Asparagine--tRNA ligase
Amino acid sequence: MRTTIKELLGDYKKLIHHDITVQGWVRAFRSNRFIALNDGSTINNLQVVVDFEQFDENILKNISNAASLKIVGEVVESQGAGQNIEIIAKKIIILGDNFTEERDKTILQPKKHSLEILREQAHLRFRTNLFSAVFRVRSSVSFAIHQFFNQNQFFYMNTPIITGADAEGAGEMFGVTNFDMNEIPRDENGAIDFAEDFFGKKTNLTVSGQLSAETAMMGLGRVYTFGPTFRAENSNTTRHLAEFWMVEPEVAFNNLEDNIDLAEDFLKYVINYVLENCKDDLEFLDKRFAEEQKQKPEKDRASEGLIEKLQNVIQKRFKRVSYTEAIDILKNSKENKKGKFQFPIDEWGADLQSEHERFLVEKHFESPVVLFDYPKDIKAFYMKLNEDGKTVAAMDVLFPGIGEIIGGSQREDKFDVLKAKMKDMNVDEEELWWYLDTRKFGSVPHAGFGLGLERLVLFVTGMTNIRDVIPFPRTPNSAEF
């Protein structure tokens, strides 16, 4: 029976002087005697000691970097520094040789390759310390998300990936069709006749599961979605992906304050879970983060380390600030008055940019911030209209280094108000008849939010490019693997 390296290193005292079987990939083979073995279960390697006089020369010459091995041996206390135990090899089986031309080179050393090059080498990317750590953390974040909602009596919903609705009204959606591109049917006016398509109407890949989740919430009370979403935005920035994962809870009878409380509790729970369960990976990422900061000009360096930053988010209550107060702060800031903002703040109603969000979080309040009560004209049609008639009950959670990490609102529950807002914002009422209907049959106050998984993983890993926290990034002109 195979023992994982994580199991062995965590419970080694019980296994001293026992024979065990391990399997993994060679990270290094030194002096024809010491194998550094890793099986992906942990960032830590296992040292295997080989008595080269006891093994066939043909086996030893094929123990090269990246080759995969099965090893049977005795667990003993290590005589050298750097590890508590090691394995004295009794049997070595080569499962997969490394027969590339670079077999003797350190092809899996992160310092030998840029992160951009590694994105083009998916089969090697996961074998580096950096990306194995990032994706173990991503896995833990995903597990913690499900665990949080399960413990709080939410029901998990799988909402459609193919949809006829544009939840955000942005129009930046990927079309879905079964048409032969050489023979697209058209109507008498020359427009594409989607009635002839597979679904009988124009359909797209979803940008959000929210609207569908609201229909389920109206019967189940507390629901959440967690799945892939898509946006056809032709952007090559470090913050955008064409395919990304969204977490979207919807809660009946919740108001805006309840929604903010839920978002804060949720984020703190997930981050705390990672701190408690990903210690080795976070220590590695923390050291990398510190090295990266040293390369920056002093004025641009983070004021705290990665682990310290995560601990501070858990310990601090999020600062709650109205949009109106935030505009006053930004408008009167030295940065704005001296023209240091790329997008100057001149008046109430401005749509805040990332630079404004990060100023509020990192410089003014020095803590996570929740902004609420935004102007209705810069927010989506489904958000609850406040009594002032000018603002909606929207909320955004802002994090250091990231900016907006969660966006949400209390939803408009009044049928006539929602219908009027849809008309004002040119949202097709016929297309969303079913969404309007949810306000006819026992409508209730309700609220929800959306979290971009990759943004949260960026925050907890200290990575700076969103393409480096998703296994197979989908961006303009890039759909490999």
Summary: The two ends are 33 Å apart (CA to CA). The chain has a mean pLDDT of 92. Residues 129-151 form the longest helix (23 residues).
